[in-house]
Amino acid sequence: MGNQLVILRIVDPAGQERFDSIAPSLLRGSHGAFLVFDISEPRTFKDLPKHMSFIGTSCNENVKVMLIGNKKDLQRRVAFDRAKSFADANEMEYLEVSALTLENLEEMFEQLASSILDSLDTSDVRILERRMSRVHLTGDEPKPNDTSSRCNCK
Question: For residue range 4-48, what is the model confidence (pLDDT) as tens digits?
């Protein structure tokens, strides 16, 4: 983003009960999370508090959470206002996407990454510094019978 390289590690415990036991370990130490529900299936919206509890107990203290209404391409069965109110009450951004048509997917990742970056201070982030190689080879092809090195080591 901008001039910063942002690497997002994406894990998906799938919201199924059989993954409840491993979800906290998958989320541990995260700076951000997507809380995703299916706008065409009200049951997934009703399960959000359970998934929020995993985020609250497993992620960093200042975790940034975005509520995502997926399957925007299908018939809506969860009202936009209901989802937006839930997001506002829990201090989250809300965005609707379609994984099928890719609508708003890029924006989803950009918004969360931006929110995470804005909330971090330098003590929160391990900055990986890529050192320039100290070995530089010239582009000249060696001449026959030339044994001199083309290495410009510094």
Answer: 677 777 766 555 565 555 555 556 667 778 889 999 999 999 989
Contacts of residue 101, Cβ cutoff 8 Å, sequence gap at least 6: 72, 73
Torsion-angle region of residue 115: left (phi > 0), alpha (psi -120 to 50) or beta? alpha
Which CATH code of 3.40.50.300, 2.60.40.420, 1.10.20.10, 3.40.50.1370 fits the domain covering 1-154?
A: 3.40.50.300
Token pair of 7 as six digits: 């690497």
Three-state DSSP state, 38: strand
**Tokens 């998906």 belong to which residue?**
12
CA distance 15 to 75: 21
Per-residue confidence (pLDDT) for residue 63, from 0 to 100 = 75
Percent of the chain whose pLDDT exceeds 70: 58
Q: What is the DSSP letter of 19?
A: G
- Which residue in this structure is represented by tokens 């997917």? 105
> Length of the chain, please?
154
Return the pLDDT at 93: 95
